[in-house]
Amino acid sequence: MTGLRETIDPAEIAKFEAMADEWWDPAGKFRPLHMLNPCRLDYITRQIAGEFGRDLAAPRPFEGLRVLDIGCGGGLLAEPMARLGADVVGADAAEGNIHVARIHAAREGLAIDYRATTAEALAEAGEAFDVVLNMEVVEHVSDPPAYLAACHRLVRPGGIMVISTLNRTMKSFAAAIVGAEYVMRWLPRGTHDWRRFITPEELAALLGEAGFEVVDRTGFVFNPLGWSWSLSERDLSVNYAMTARHPG
Amino acid sequence: MKPDVLIIGGGLNGAALAIALARAGMPVTLVESRPLDTFTAEDFDGRAYALSLASKRMLAALELWPSMADEAQPILDIRVADGRPGEGAGFGAVHFDHAEIEEGPMGWIVEDRVVRRALIDRLGETPGIDIRAPARVVDHQTTASGAEATLESGETLRTGLIVACDGRESPTARRAGIHRIRHDYGQSAIVCAVAHERDHGGAAHQLFLPAGPFAILPLPGGHRSSIVWAERPALAARLRNAAEDEFLAALRPRFGDFLGPIRLAGKRFVYPLSLSLAERMTAPRLALLGDAAHGIHPLAGQGFNLGLRDSAALAEVLVEAARRGEDVGSPLVLARYGAWRSFDNTTTALAMSALDGLFSNDNPLLRLGRNLGLAAVERLPALKRRFIREAAGLTGALPRLLEGRPL
Q1: Domain B5-182+274-403 listed as CATH 3.40.50.300
Q2: For residue range B287-329, what is the model confidence (pLDDT) as tens digits?
């Protein structure tokens, strides 16, 4: 929050205030993300609780854990992590998102360290975390091996990274490109390049090369009848996540 | 730190929700305008509830059932009939026997004061509940990130979410600009306990008379029953104040003589019957629960069961949200509660109204149709099992607490 009002002119602040409302409107532009979010959070919180022996029914169960959210956007994952007691850094290369996230966190009374930066730059600066959240980012980067190597340097030995992406199957082509971008218009056209999607086998291999040990793989499955998402151990055909440990 | 949830109204539903949330680790503040012990006074109310199997499971999951069990009468049999005063039951009587579903009794009759005493005792013993009673909320404000309630004393309470359990005229819902759909049935319910010579054997009776439904609900001990008698308001008021002999003379043709001689076993109460549905169950930073959301016709005792279903669903939605770090009062979270509950509440309220409108009518054709309809139900075991399971609250997507599981 520091410095925001000194470095941006008032017209810009008004713009970011409006963008914050838009980011957090459940029926607005980011509706697909809001629909997926409870499912992602269920996965992330259970993986962290399991790895670090925390009880999610206790108040502030993530107290003492340092968490990095890469590609934090408006703070849809960073805020819940802070509410659960974690010490959170939210990073996004898009400076506009960082302004938006800071405004919203201030409204919610949450202390989150938002930074307009990249995973590579944070690794370069020697930052280290117990948990790195890497949700729906890797399919957008140009050099996944180099990116995951940087992520590995950000995770402390004994810490974990939770990573999610889209599988490269006919079903994911139909769901993410044809369905989400063209038919439902949930996402702007061109958001995804299907050729960059990564199969679970490829991701596991990339994580292994980067020095991680994969401890869990789970699918996020959309149910069009209930308009809701659920976790699945078997169906990784479209959206899926993995938890990878930095051995040490 | 501000509490996650502020509950306005410490009646049955507000208390049940507070206990469910606090037991799952969510800090709660409960504000009630009357001193809590008002509710347990012997002559405070006089009503009895027909608790469904699902409601009983929830009360058991909240450890409330053990202190009620001894004073709860299992419903072993429900008899529904169409009739006219003095004629007894029509030929199309339907008989629902608990042996037809495997889960056991179809429900339990528990007097209001027993339920309240159990809830109030548990409220006091549960850590994490800040009770403000007597205290009255005179105003509330909401912002995008929280809510604030102002008490009569001038104190303000900050919270993430307000839950209004303040009854069918809910001042909280009114302040939030939530409109209500109302219907006056033009009936009042006379409620009282009646002592009878013969043992009721755990049977509940529902008779549809032209003036409105008449129910006999078995109370513990075998020789007392609670009656719910719908009548025209003027007659109901007269009957409340009539001498016992005169009252019993009017009651006998309806009650019948199958339980032997009867006498009054307590005070008589009269309640006007009306429907009051809130147009929405949620508003920013606000959720409505129980009668504040849906005051329905008390036919079949579904009001309290519906309220408990609201409490179980809301508690589950809020606890899940809190455990994944979501803002429990955000529109995203409240939308899940609204979607889960509004369909069930509206269908139950409309079904109860339609059922009453269909039966409380003396048209001979309708009467014949009703008898044929009831006779048809009696002859279709599968359909009957469905009605019994519906009455037991075992249909639909059940919240965990209604399955007797903890949050």
Answers
A1: no
A2: 999 999 988 766 545 678 889 989 999 999 999 999 999 999 9
- Which helix H or strand E contains B125, and what residues bound it? helix B112-125
Q: Which of B317, B342, B10 has the alpha carbon at shortest distance from B178? A: B342
Strand B282-283 versus strand B203-209 pairing type? unpaired
Q: How far is CA B305 from CA A21, B118, B197, B393, in A?
A: 38, 16, 31, 8
User: Sign of dihedral through CA atoms A70, A74, A79, A80?
Assistant: negative
Output the six-digit token pair for B3.
Answer: 């509490």
In this prediction the ipTM stands at: 0.87
What is the overall mean pLDDT for chain B? 83
Measured in whole angstroms, the distance separating CA B110 from the mean position of its chain's CA atoms is 11
Quick check: A77 pLDDT over 60?
yes
* Cα distance between residue B87 and residue B368, in whole Å: 15
Q: Give the helix/strand (H/E) hosting A235.
A: none
B-chain residue closest to A82, CA distance = B325
Residue B145 with chain A: CB contacts under 8 Å = 107-109
Instruction: Tell me which of A20-29, B6-15, B171-180 is least confident.
Output: A20-29
The β-bridge relationship of strands B203-209 and B212-218 is: antiparallel
CA count, 13 A, side-chain hemisphere, B361: 16
Within 8 A of B144 by CB-CB distance, chain A residues are 21, 107
Compare A134 and A195 and report the one with higher pLDDT.
A134
User: Does position B390 have pLDDT exceeding 80, yes or no?
Assistant: no
Burial of residue B228, with CB atoms counted within 10 A of its CB: 0-12 exposed, 13-18 middle, 19 or more buried: buried
What contacts A45, CB < 8 A, 6 or more positions away?
A: A56, A80, A84, B323, B324, B325
User: What pLDDT score was predicted for residue B30?
Assistant: 97
Q: Which residue from A95, A90, A94 is spatially nearest to A72, judged by alpha carbons? A: A90
- Gap from A145 CA to chain B (nearest CA, Å): 31
Measure CA of the first residue to CA of the last residue in chain B; give whole Å. 23
pLDDT for the residue numbered B299: 54
Residues 2-41 on B with a CB inside 8 Å of A are 24-25
Binary contact (B325, A107; C-beta < 8 A): no
Chain-chain contact of A41 with B327 (C-beta, under 8 angstroms): no
From chain B, pick out residues whose CB is under 8 angstroms from the CB of A34.
Answer: 332
Distance CA A169, CA A174 (A): 9
Contact A42 B324 (CB under 8 A): yes
Q: Are B293 and B310 in contact (CB under 8 A)?
A: yes
Q: Report DSSP letters for B293-352, one per residue.
A: TEE---GGGHHHHHHHHHHHHHHHHHHHHHHTT--TTSHHHHHHHHHHHHHHHHHHHHHH
Of the candidate ranges B2-11, B119-128, B209-218, the one whose mean pLDDT is the lowest? B209-218
Chain-chain contact of A41 with B25 (C-beta, under 8 angstroms): no
Q: Is the pLDDT of residue A3 over 70?
A: no
| Three-class SS state of B23 | helix
Range from A119-133, B95-109, B382-396 carrying the lowest mean pLDDT: B382-396
Most confident option among A70-79, A186-195, B93-102: A70-79
State how far residue A43 is from chain B, nearest Cα, in angstroms.
9
